[in-house]
Amino acid sequence: ADDEIRVDHLLEQIWICGEEGKPAQSELLRVEGPAGQLPIVGAEPAARLLARMADLRLIEFNGNRNGSPANGNKSSGNGGEVRLTEDGSRRARDVVRRHRLAERLFTDTFAIEDAEAHVQACRFEHIITPELDQRICSFLGHPKTCPHGNPIPPGVCCETKPEAAK
């Protein structure tokens, strides 16, 4: 379960790099997330997780679709750009959506400060089921952005209820 959470966090980091227009470099993912926003995954676990994520076809290194870095060293991906595959992008999008909906829920409904809402959302995003995701979004009026102004990827519920609140 802890590895799945770490995989989700790395996918989230890669997604956010894409939103920011920055390449996701494998060595940077081992140290910190974009703008230090996400929990740190140590160098060894990150290298192992990145290799596992490539095996699962969630990411690719340097445009190589077979899941291994261009240098052939599957376990490291040193210095290589990491990109989401279609499956990885779908999973990352879902994690980002759950995180940003959780932040919106905590700040709007419970008046929790932004920093604490972020910390709690990092925990909560992993236990939100797809059904609960849709219910939270509907409850909040289908918000378009998180409290920080970042876009919340729309869900199925947003397609049936096009009017959005924030």
Describe the structure.
The protein is mostly helical. The chain has 2 domains: 2-84; 95-160, Iron dependent repressor, metal binding and dimerisation domain (Diphtheria Toxin Repressor, domain 2, Orthogonal Bundle). It is built from 7 helices and 3 strands. The chain has helices at residues 2-19, 26-29, 43-55, 86-110, 114-124, 130-139, 156-160, and strands at 24-25, 59-61, 81-84. The protein has a 3-stranded antiparallel sheet. The longest helix is centred in the middle third of the chain and has 25 residues, at 86-110. The chain is globular, with a radius of gyration of 16 Å. Mean pLDDT is 82; it is low at 32-39 and 64-77.
Features:
166 residues; mainly alpha; Diphtheria Toxin Repressor, domain 2
Q: What is the chain-wise order of helices and strands?
A: HEHHEEHHHH
Distance between the termini: 33 Å
What is the β-strand count? 3
C-alpha Rg, in Å? 16 Å
> What strand line-up does the widest sheet have?
1-3-2
Low-confidence stretches: 32-39, 64-77
Q: What can be said about the biggest beta sheet?
A: 3 strands, antiparallel
How many structural domains does the protein architecture include? 2
Work out the helicity level: 40-55%
Mean pLDDT: 82
Give the amount of beta strand, in percent.
5-15%
Which structural class should the secondary elements be placed in?
mainly alpha
Number of helical regions: 7
Specify the overall morphology: globular
